[in-house]
Design goal:
This protein has 275 residues and is of the alpha/beta class. The chain has helices spanning 16-28, 30-33, 54-62, 75-86, 127-137, 161-176, 187-193, 213-229, 231-236, 242-257; strands at residues 44-48, 67-72, 95-99, 114-118, 143-149, 155-157, 196-208, 262-274. It has one domain: Rossmann fold. Helix 5 (127-137) links the parallel strand 4 (114-118) and strand 5 (143-149).
């Protein structure tokens, strides 16, 4: 990614509806995203791109001895996260949510003993710079886990041309905004070039067909919500037409009720340690 690029927006917007969707998304994907995370010995975790604190809540619940410092560029999302976490009671004194630029973290070196990044590098213009800053503020040996999209893997059956056309526009618009909807496949290179060690990547795949009918129905509902969350911005920018959005709604409804429907999508989780 070129260092001259700038991220100029968030495709899904910052509405209350999107904030609620982010919390539902975190809970829905918890089992795959938070599977055997290496934070048992960590006490001061940095979460980059914490948003509304949806992942923060899960981290605090799974690791009772952890204090999480979450950073994000959106003060609106952070304030929503603070209210939500404060309302839980059991999180008191265990988190700080701070507005800052992930490419210029306002923390001293060796401040944290672990880092968690989830669905954030897809939205930044220079992932390498963000990872360099993360490495700077971590102690030697600290674990890092990054979970990211690989949007080229998306497939549904029955064939859905409006959905595919919309998905192409969705990804193109994210690229225009300065993000990268295919960054998941690049995590190994980014971490290795950034001076991390013990770099591993794991492809997590949803391949849902008649063998997993219940999960397929749940995931199609979740994915429909995710796709439609970008529709207002895509329509406003003139990247799709209303007919395409409506055609996608109809197709996804057909896929959801088709006897032999198939859903396929993969994302990538990378793990590494600081030298």
């Amino acid at each position: 990614m070129s260092k001259t690029r700038k991220a100029t927006g968030y495709l899904h917007g910052f509405t209350p509806e999107e904030q609620d969707r982010l919390r539902r998304q975190a809970r829905f994907l918890e089992d795959k995203v938070h599977d055997a995370l290496p934070y048992r010995r960590c006490r001061k975790l940095l979460e980059v791109g914490c948003g509304v604190g949806a992942q923060t809540e899960i981290l605090l619940r799974r690791f009772p001895d952890l204090h999480v410092t979450g950073v994000d560029s959106s003060e609106a999302n952070l304030e929503t996260g603070r209210r939500h976490l404060a309302g839980l009671g059991w999180t008191e004194g265990r988190y700080d949510l701070v507005q800052t630029d992930a490419s210029r973290l306002d923390f001293p070196s060796d401040r944290f003993d672990g880092a968690f990044l989830c669905w954030i590098l897809e939205h930044v213009a220079d992932p390498a710079q963000v990872l360099a800053e993360v490495r700077r503020v971590l102690t030697p040996g600290a674990p890092v886990v990054i979970t990211e999209v690989q949007n080229a893997t998306f497939f549904v059956d029955p064939y859905s041309p409006n959905t595919l056309a919309y998905w192409m526009a969705f990804n193109d618009w994210q690229l225009e905004l300065g993000g990268d909807p295919f960054v998941g496949a690049k995590l190994g290179n980014l971490l290795q070039a950034g001076g991390y060690r013990d770099v591993t990547t794991r492809v997590r795949t949803f391949h849902l067909d008649n063998r997993h009918a219940g999960e397929r129905a749940e995931f199609l509902a979740f994915w429909t919500e995710l796709l439609l969350s970008g529709a207002p911005e895509l329509l406003k920018a003139g990247k799709v037409e209303e007919a395409t959005v409506e055609g996608m709604r109809e197709e996804l409804e057909e896929v959801a009720h088709s006897r032999d429907s198939v859903f396929f999508y993969s994302f990538v989780q990378a793990r590494a340690r600081v030298l």
